[in-house]
Design a protein that fits this description.
Elements lengths: L2 E5 L3 E2 L5 E8 L8 E6 L5 E7 L6 E3 L7 E6 L4 E6 L8 E7 L2 E2 L3 E5 L2
Parallel strand pairs: 2-11
Antiparallel strand pairs: 1-3, 3-8, 4-5, 4-9, 5-6, 7-8, 9-10, 9-11
Length: 112
């Protein structure tokens, strides 16, 4: 069955970088488009990054464009989200998605 497990969340200061990892099982990430989304406290889910199945196209929310990068390693069956120049408004639970499937999320807190 499809399973996704996010990790890498942490408490960091503004301006810092983090890399989130999503370990996929039950399918091959090379065959599917993958996404990252986040949910800040008290706010709706926000789609932030999208990677095409063959990895040739990416899309980003305006809020993260130029700071975040989505990528995947087909051999390891993992998806990554590199986050640079983090801001307090980036705080939230981050989820990796394949279609309607997602993991339990990983918490990112950006605060001084």
């Amino acid at each position: 069955q499809v399973q996704l497990a996010e990790s890498g969340g942490d408490w960091v200061q503004p301006g810092s970088s983090l890399r989130l990892t999503c370990v996929a099982s039950g399918f091959s990430v090379g065959n599917y488009g993958m996404k990252w989304a986040r949910q800040a406290p008290g706010k709706e889910l926000e789609w932030i990054a999208d990677l095409s199945a063959i990895g040739d196209m990416t899309m980003y929310a305006d809020s993260v464009k130029g700071r975040f990068t989505i990528s995947k390693d087909n051999a390891k069956n993992m998806v990554y989200l590199q986050m640079n120049n983090l801001r307090p408004e980036d705080t939230g639970v981050y989820y990796c998605y394949r279609n309607v499937f997602r993991g339990k999320g990983t918490l990112v807190t950006v605060s001084s």
